[in-house]
Amino acid sequence: MVKIYSVEDAKKTILKRIPPDEVKVTEGMLARIEATFGERIMPEEAVRRIIRDIRENGDAGLALWNQKLDGFPRGVSNKVPVEDIQRSLELIPHAEREALTVAAQRIRSFYQKQPTHSWVTNDLGGTLGQFIRPHHRVGVYVPGGTAALPSSVLMSAVPAQVAGVKEIVIVSPPVRASGQDAAESPIFPYLPKIILAACAVIGITEVYAIGGAQSIGALAFGTETIPPVDKIFGPGNLFVTLAKRQVFGMVGIDGLAGPTETMIIADGNAKPAWVAADMLAQAEHDVLASAILLTPSLDLAKQVQTELEKQAATLPRKEILDQSLANQSGIVITENLEEAININNQYAPEHLCLAVDDPWSLSDKVKNAGGIFIGEQSFEMLGDYIAGPSHVMPTGGSARFASPVNVWDFVHIISLIALDKKTTQEISPLAARIARAEGLEAHARSADFRINEG
Amino acid sequence: MVKIYSVEDAKKTILKRIPPDEVKVTEGMLARIEATFGERIMPEEAVRRIIRDIRENGDAGLALWNQKLDGFPRGVSNKVPVEDIQRSLELIPHAEREALTVAAQRIRSFYQKQPTHSWVTNDLGGTLGQFIRPHHRVGVYVPGGTAALPSSVLMSAVPAQVAGVKEIVIVSPPVRASGQDAAESPIFPYLPKIILAACAVIGITEVYAIGGAQSIGALAFGTETIPPVDKIFGPGNLFVTLAKRQVFGMVGIDGLAGPTETMIIADGNAKPAWVAADMLAQAEHDVLASAILLTPSLDLAKQVQTELEKQAATLPRKEILDQSLANQSGIVITENLEEAININNQYAPEHLCLAVDDPWSLSDKVKNAGGIFIGEQSFEMLGDYIAGPSHVMPTGGSARFASPVNVWDFVHIISLIALDKKTTQEISPLAARIARAEGLEAHARSADFRINEG
What we know:
By secondary structure, chain A is α/β, with parallel strands linked by helices.
């Protein structure tokens, strides 16, 4: 089921990057849009209408779309009661609670070490520097869909807490609860308990059961009950991504997420079963996920191919695996490890795993990747949950210019300019000269005042 | 000409933030679009068509729009010959060359002090950390229009050089040169010499006379002769800003720039003539620029008002000043300095100038601003040219979540995960537990392999 490619063939297929706006809109999606809007419009236009409705009608618009698109009952508050967040902890197995707690601790410990302090210098006359200030209020989108993702709560919200963000809001699409289930649930029944538990573990108290473009509109522009945020984080489906692009600039946006992807570079000594297991972990995310192995060893390639077949047969998400492995995944035979690294640097994957004898020397040559996993003990799945660094990493080749979620994403810099009088006297005439070369006389005169009256 | 407002009135007028996408499209702009496209389409659609043309037709599309919109002659290369960049230095006054050199040195010295190093920790079992890598290739847009802005070259390109970016490309809209001027010019006649000189001072060798949405399309997607970049920087007009939003995600985008703005907080001891001069320097940029004074002193307010009138009368860009001062600028009487700071934090201006007795204690309370100018010796115009920190700062209230251009904008983080075996054994069962709670069995099994065979 997983093919073995030459580099040349792979570059025309699984290694080819398609710009996010050239991704084809499926017939199924257009049909769903038509069912909702009564018209066959493009997703971008659908998103525009939803956001406009939230901006114009606030909570009423939000309630409408939350019902229409996600089946959330009208007349029920989409805000999770604070006490239910806390109570969720008692409703999940102790072992899960413990695992989430340790994961949160490790993520916190990691980001507490990231240097993001204010600094000043006195070497340029007076005091110049950068004040670092946390954003005041941020929103984190936690995707719904085929898996409930408590890890997504931890991986974005903990770095925000380390940064000192005062208000952290979680939004996540409501799950459908039948009338009876809802009536019998001891707590808010429209979000998975494990997601609420992740919020409780790190002390998050503001959670809304809203998703899709409507939640992005609400976070960006606010409603009567949800104050707007300064920046929006977290991956989502196509509607969420299009909505984030449309509000970019009005609020901060972490980046636009595409399907998740792993590149593994392995030599002949890697364990085929482990490599295959790591590829399958990647491929099970969704049908668009991609797992690509680069290796100079045809022997390893064949063994991994066999292992993939064998292991996949016993896994529950087989239908997803079949599609993601057949379409965007594969094994590429490279000339040597050097060529594999060059391919990696062009492709700029979200995850890069180095299952080779000397991963450290190879890691020095890596220019683009969201995260590097060194050796087979540091396998990718640990990064998804518990290693420490955020699992929210740049996808789709954006690792060329973007970073994993980190403390810098939650703070802003204020440049500090406090020149002393001597320096002002020295540099003002030079500044005035450039200003006059630019034709900006009022600029020059503001300098003249200091020169003449200083 | 400049009004004095109460806080209440100011919040309804000059302090009111209008979301960038609600800014009205003027009749003049629609008429210009109609003249070019033969149809009355919105600027967003015009930009979409231009970018599509560049993507589909590369250099030919670029040449077409460069001619149509900016009058650049067909059949002439838009790339500035490298030797002409160097020769431009001999064609500007020595004093300007010296000023640009000192400015570049100060900017470089400032950013060389910014901490952006890779780091690792061994406290979490094995080695975790962040590798910092420079982006490979970035584009800087230098606006044209009413002023030639060599300072914009320095303020974006020098931090890029400090970051270690290998390829830095400058684009700037061509100026119209008559046939005779062009023939007689000793060097490339379609860009101001002072802009080329700024490139020469810092060793930039790749410069194109292209502007508008067409230049953003070329940078984002590349043409036969211009390789695509990883990230695009620099402010521009509405077309440039719309183009940047449309390519956001395909490439990195520094942010969306709006009109420039200064907020000055002054007490009764500030010098009225200096405050007025600083406001005029801000207001002369363009008709949409804004200069707002917040002061508890009605006495100062009135003196500044008089000074503004007096000084403006003698300035060359009087028509621009009249509009920017009357429409988006003003003086606001606050209860006290505390209230002024609160207003500042809500408004989140690009520049904040503190012309007060104790600026340092006030600066501690500043949460949002692109840059803080401490005291009347550190006036805003020095920040535009020579103080050190970049003059490219967040506008339109985006200082709530965005930073001035700095070295971090030109590097990306790669998370490093190199756990030791003992730690892997400890945390793998916890990770498997979360994975199973999320319903991701293949994730859990990749951990099982390490637990069982580790």
